[in-house]
Design goal:
Elements: E1 10-22, E2 27-29, E3 34-35, E4 39-57, E5 63-66, E6 75-76, H1 79-96, E7 103-111, H2 121-136, H3 143-151, H4 158-161, E8 166-169, E9 182-185, E10 192-198, H5 208-214, H6 221-241, H7 244-263, H8 274-288, E11 294-296, E12 303-308, H9 312-320, E13 327-332, E14 338-339, H10 348-352
Parallel strand pairs: 5-7
Antiparallel strand pairs: 1-4, 1-14, 2-3, 4-7, 4-8, 5-6, 8-9, 10-12, 10-13, 11-12
Bound molecules: (3R)-3-hydroxy-3-methyl-5-(phosphonooxy)pentanoic acid.
Length: 369
């Protein structure tokens, strides 16, 4: 952590969602998002949260707004969302050594994609909050420290979204209390795309936090933990060797198992919708027709087809033709969060502040199309 005294400023960060190849499901300590198992993800490029944090000197409540749209002005964030953001800001204050009455934060945030639909909006949102708040305080956390700061939100997947490319977030073991994500390979290593078949765009009925809590009640949970080391090895090897078939078969097996555990939890949790099965069938049919597409789903109904760049246009077209698919989002591997240029009132440290994490004012990464 920087040893400079926090100096109130303002910063805007853009942070991407990620899609998990091996899922975080079940926690050793849910409050602190200490995962039961290691997870591996691909950081995306276009599905992003854009968050501005202003640190205002003096006491007062933190304010949380949703960014203005084309028709509406800024709106106060919904209560539950604002509560989670305020709790995260409290953790950021403690990290920075700022007393509660010393400064308050004003946060404005927006997503480029439907929130709470299994598209990792909490990952991008809390990663953007950690990057922007750190920079607004003139701090320069490196990637590992940002990962810990993002995890302090309670959203474990946010710990992976602070890094670009292919990212592993370990389970406790080497660092029992504080697992921090690390990059397995940069975005430029492998141009994979994520074609998302959106079959549901409303909020899901059961949050991922509730899903983590219920996971150990499934009779399949313990068996999953036994199977995971081999599966993690296969995913690491597939990424290292750019082996799309090994990656694809492994992530499909993993996604189905996550949902098997959810559906067999007590009480059961069904994230799938009828459209999920239609999209999965379409992905299998594409493979029969020679396209290299494999499916995965996070805690939601939407289906992510992971494909090499060359097959993306055909896969997107085929998914758009599935009756249950309302919208197709074309995304791909990205280089991680960045700070946007701020006008002169932001402290000079705020703009430079993200340098330590390889984060600087720049455009989204490799797969921006
Ligand atoms: O970070 P959380 O608490 O929203 O949990 C994420 C759960 C999954 O998306 C299903 C898996 C993952 O590793 O992202």
């Amino acid at each position: 952590m920087s040893d400079s005294v926090p100096r109130p400023g303002r910063a805007t960060a853009v942070a991407p969602a990620n899609i998990a190849f091996v899922k975080y499901w079940g926690a050793v300590d849910l409050e602190r998002a200490i995962p039961r198992n290691p997870s591996i993800s691909m950081t995306l490029s276009r599905c992003v949260s854009r968050t501005t944090v202003e640190a205002v000197p003096g006491p007062g409540d933190d304010e949380v707004f949703l960014a203005p749209s084309a028709v509406d002005g800024p709106a106060p964030a919904p209560d539950e969302f604002a509560r989670r953001v305020r709790a995260h800001l409290g953790a950021i204050r403690r990290w920075a050594g700022v007393g509660p009455g010393e400064l308050r934060f004003r946060v404005t945030t927006a997503n480029s994609f439907p929130a709470a639909a299994g598209l990792a909006s909490s990952a991008s949102g809390f990663a953007a909050l950690a990057v922007a708040a750190g920079a607004a305080l003139g701090r320069r956390p490196d990637g590992a420290e940002l990962s810990a700061l993002a995890r302090a939100s309670g959203s474990g997947s946010a710990a992976r979204s602070v890094l670009g490319g292919y990212v592993e977030w370990p389970a406790p073991g080497s660092a029992p209390d504080d697992p921090r994500a690390a990059q397995l390979a940069p975005a430029g290593h492998w141009d994979l795309r994520d074609v998302v078949a959106v079959v549901e765009s409303g909020p899901k009925e059961v949050s991922s936090l509730a899903g983590h809590r219920l996971a150990p009640t499934s009779p399949h949970f313990a068996r999953r933990l036994e199977l995971l080391p081999d599966r993690l090895d296969r995913v690491r090897r597939a990424i290292r060797e750019r082996d799309v078939e090994l990656l694809g078969t492994t992530i499909e097996e993993e996604a189905v198992e996550l949902h098997l555990v959810a559906m067999s939890s007590r009480p059961p949790v069904f994230y799938w919708a009828p459209g999920t099965l239609e999209a999965l069938a379409a992905v299998r049919a594409m493979r029969r027709d020679g396209l290299a597409a494999w499916a995965t789903m996070d805690a939601g109904a939407n289906v992510h087809a992971i494909v090499p760049a060359a097959d993306e246009p055909a896969v997107a077209e085929r998914l758009a033709g599935v009756a249950a698919v309302r919208r197709v989002i074309r995304d791909g591997v990205g280089t991680g969060p960045y700070l946007e240029d701020e006008p002169a009132q932001s402290g000079p440290d705020a703009a430079a502040g993200a340098g330590g994490a390889g984060i600087g004012p720049r455009r989204a990464g490799g797969s921006a199309r």
